[in-house]
Design brief:
heterodimer; A: mainly alpha; 2 domains; B: 244 residues; alpha/beta; 37% helix; binds adenosine-5'-triphosphate; binds magnesium ion
């Protein structure tokens, strides 16, 4: 016999598992419907350019600042070991390797999710509850081709580009922090970095960033389109989208790290 | 032109109950009824935005219910629609909102677009509002922009959900007269939902009355005025005493 408390607990666990499955299923269906619009490509050109510009430009400052500090933090963390063992030559490798493979892509993706993903959900959700999406449909416009596909493509492309930009800034931040805090020459830093790091390490980070971009784009669009309950619903959708994007980023990071070794 | 057969739809509870209705070509059909009767949902079923549980909608001989997205798009090109809450695109200016359906139909000549937008704004007494954003408009102004956008393509079927809500009596009557005049010019098939019954009945050919998801009455404007059906009588004449 289970106590009433256990029953409600298991019922709750069951209900939330069901809710998660429903959302994941929703994202999968959205993905399939979008994929159908890629062959042959049915994307609205002007909307694509507008979104590329908006998402890229909007994110530059926040990604720039994040990246510089990521680089600096990695050096501070590595500094303890570098000092103890006097291994200045390893600073570039120690800080750079983790930054371009892991910390850079994931932190930049999370900032991007908070900035662009949340904004995407809010915009789409508002358009949905105010029937603008329905209005597009009645004008014989396919909302997925016109609204969603340009946003998804823009987010994948832009997060990829922003991660390249962020990697560079993070390494610059690391190099100069190394000089300022640990007295490691900037040239020593670069030498250490370039000797140890392979193109594949950079590529790993960038492949991940494209994957993160796709996850953020799909989940933020999904929550925006499936919003219910008017203006309060928009707030809930943004909230759920940010949580789902972050979770998706971490889970996919775990698996892609395995696969891309 | 528009035929509805046995349409039923439930959300949490039934919203449309076995609604059947025929609106012939060139008819201006007024749809009235108390709040939450299902009028807006019925309009959305006609353009395929809401999928009914049972029944079928036929537009110009083509069955809309159950069409795939691409075929639906083809049918929707015949329609103009004004949403009850206007559904203006809030990221576009008033001018671009009105030009949007035209661009969509392949009009690319900027001079022609500007001229047709200006013509629409003149028709709804909003001359010079092209560059304004929807968020900076009053409720009635938004409604009139919505009317301008719904009429700009001169579609052969136009659905208006509350074209005069929130307008003063004079502007309301002007809008009704405008829509009637243009409907005659284009011989369009029009369904107009409005709570402003007195003014609505000055322009309708036929009237339908919905109540709790059912179409209780469907007849000519004169038949509606002289109907003895207790609900119709009470509603059309705005009486306080009665079954409603
Ligand atoms: N998407 C939806 N989900 C759930 N319920 C809905 C939905 N759309 C409409 N309803 C319900 O259907 C009923 C009819 O709504 P509808 O908007 O058609 O009323 P209406 O006749 O247009 O009323 P009004 O004159 O107030 O605009 C209402 O009870 C409404 O709550
Ligand atoms: Mg309504």
């Amino acid at each position: 016999m289970s106590t009433p408390d256990e029953e409600t607990l298991s019922a709750r666990v069951g209900a939330s598992a069901f809710a998660v499955a429903a959302q994941v299923g929703g994202v999968a269906i959205l993905t399939a419907r979008l994929a159908r619009r890629l062959f042959p490509p049915r994307v609205d050109g002007p909307e694509l350019l507008r979104n590329l510009y908006k998402m890229g430009v909007r994110s530059l400052p926040i990604v720039g600042v994040t990246a510089l500090f990521v680089g600096a933090i990695m050096v501070v963390q590595a500094g303890v070991l570098i000092r103890r063992f006097g291994a200045e030559g390893l600073l570039g490798w120690g800080a750079g390797f983790a930054t371009v493979r892991e910390v850079g892509p994931i932190l930049i993706a999370l900032m991007f999710s908070g900035r662009v993903g949340a904004n995407n959900t809010a915009e789409l959700a508002t358009m949905t509850v105010t029937e603008q999406v329905d209005a597009l449909s009645t004008l014989a416009i396919d909302p997925l081709s016109y609204l969603i596909l340009p946003r998804v493509i823009s987010m994948v492309v832009m997060l990829f580009i922003l991660t390249i930009f962020g990697d560079v800034l993070a390494l610059v931040g690391a190099a100069y922090t190394g000089q300022a805090l640990l007295g490691v020459n900037v040239a020593t830093f670069w030498n250490g970095l370039l000797e140890a790091i392979r193109v594949w390490d950079l590529a790993t980070g960038l492949i991940k960033s494209a994957l993160f971009g796709l996850i953020i784009a799909l989940s933020s669009s999904h929550y925006g389109l499936t919003v219910t309950g008017g203006a309060p619903g928009v707030g809930r959708a943004v909230n759920a989208s940010v949580v789902a994007s972050a979770t998706g980023v971490f889970i996919s990071d775990y698996f892609s790290t395995y696969v891309l070794q | 032109m528009i035929e509805v057969h046995g349409l039923s739809k439930s959300f949490a509870e039934p919203v449309l109950r076995d609604v059947s209705l025929t609106v012939p070509r060139g008819c201006l059909f007024g749809l009235v009824g108390p709040g939450a009767a299902g009028k807006s949902v019925l309009l959305k079923c006609l353009v395929g935005l809401v999928t009914p549980d049972r029944g079928a909608v036929t537009v110009a001989g083509e069955t809309v219910t159950g069409l795939d997205e691409l075929s639906l798009q083809r049918v929707r090109r015949r329609f103009g629609m004004l949403f009850q809450n206007n559904a203006l695109f809030d990221y576009l200016t008033v001018g671009e909102n009105i030009a949007f359906p035209l661009r969509r139909m392949g009009v690319t000549d900027e001079a022609e677009l500007a001229e047709r937008v200006a013509d629409r704004l003149r028709a709804v007494s909003l001359v010079g509002f092209e560059a304004r954003m929807p968020s900076g408009l009053s409720g009635g102004q938004k409604k009139r922009v919505g009317v301008a956008r719904a009429t700009v393509t001169r579609a052969e079927i136009v659905l208006y959900d509350e074209p005069a809500a929130g307008l003063d009596p004079v502007t309301s009557q002007k809008i009704f007269d405008l829509l009637r005049r243009e409907q005659r010019e284009t011989n369009a098939t029009v369904i107009m939902v409005s709570s402003d019954i007195d003014r609505l009945l000055t322009v309708t050919d036929r009237v339908g009355l919905m109540h709790r998801g059912e179409l209780l009455f469907d007849g000519t404007t004169d038949e509606a005025r002289s109907s003895l059906h207790p609900v119709v009588k009470q509603f059309i004449h705005g009486e306080v005493e009665g079954p409603l």
